[in-house]
C-alpha cells in the first residue's frame, strides 16, 4: 500500500480537473471572458458576397467576323474591359471585408456551454491572426442556445438594407447543423455539472483517504467518485468534440456558396480533454491503491497460513 501522503496526488489531480471543468462550463459567461474557448465560432464576415455580381462576360466572340481596323479596335476594347474587370474584383475583395457592416450584422457568433456571444474581428476579418472584439453575450435555454437564423434576421431587420436571409439564399439545412450543436449543448451542460459535482466530492474524499488511510471502504469510495467524475467529464468531452466537428463541417459545406463558415474551438477541446485526463489519472491512482491493498492482504493471509 502506498504512503498516506501519496493521497495528495489524486487530490491535486481532482482539484485541477474541478477547476478546468468549471472553466469549460463558464467560458464566455461574461463579455470577453475566455472568448477564445468557444465550442465553435460562425464567421459571417463574408455573408452576402454571393449577391455581388462582379463577373463580366467576354464578347470577343461577337467580333470574330470582323477584320482589319475593326478587329484591332475590338482587341483594344477587350483589353480595357479586362482591366476594368480586374479593378472591380480588387475593389470587391476590399468591400467583402465590410459586408457584415453593410448588412448591419456582426462578423462572428460564438457558441459556449452557457451562452452565445457575438462581435467583430479586429483590426478586420482578413487580417492574419485577427483578434476578437466581443460586443455582447446572451443567455438562453441550453436546448435553444444558438438560434443563428433568428439572430441574423433580427439584425438584418434593423440594418441599412431591407433584406432577409432568404434574399441571401440562406439554405434551410443550415438550421439542422445549428440544431446539432444545440442538442449537444444540453447534454454537455448536464455532464459538466455532474463532472464538477463528482470531482468536488472526489477532493473531499481524498481528505478522508488521508486520515483513514488503509481502510478498504474509503479507498473504494474514492475510486467510485473519481471514476464517476472521469466518466462524466470524458463523455462531455466526447460530445463536445463530435458536435463541434460535425456542426462546423456541415455549416462549411452548406454555407460556402453564401460566404458562411465555421471553425471548431480547438482551445476548448484541448481544455476539456486535459480536464478529463487529470480525472482519469486520479481514478487510475485509486485503482492501483486497491490492487496494492489486495496484494498486501494476500501476502498477509499467506503469512498467517504458513505460521500455523
From TrEMBL:
The chain crosses the membrane at residues 7-28, 189-213, 225-244, 264-288. PANTHER family: CELL MEMBRANE PROTEIN YLR413W-RELATED, SUR7 PROTEIN. GO terms for biological process: fungal-type cell wall organization. This is SUR7 family protein pun1. InterPro entries: SUR7/Rim9-like_fungi, SUR7_domain. It comes from Cylindrodendrum hubeiense. It comes from the Eukaryota. Keywords: Membrane, Transmembrane, Transmembrane helix. GO terms for cellular component: cell cortex of cell tip; plasma membrane. Pfam families: SUR7.
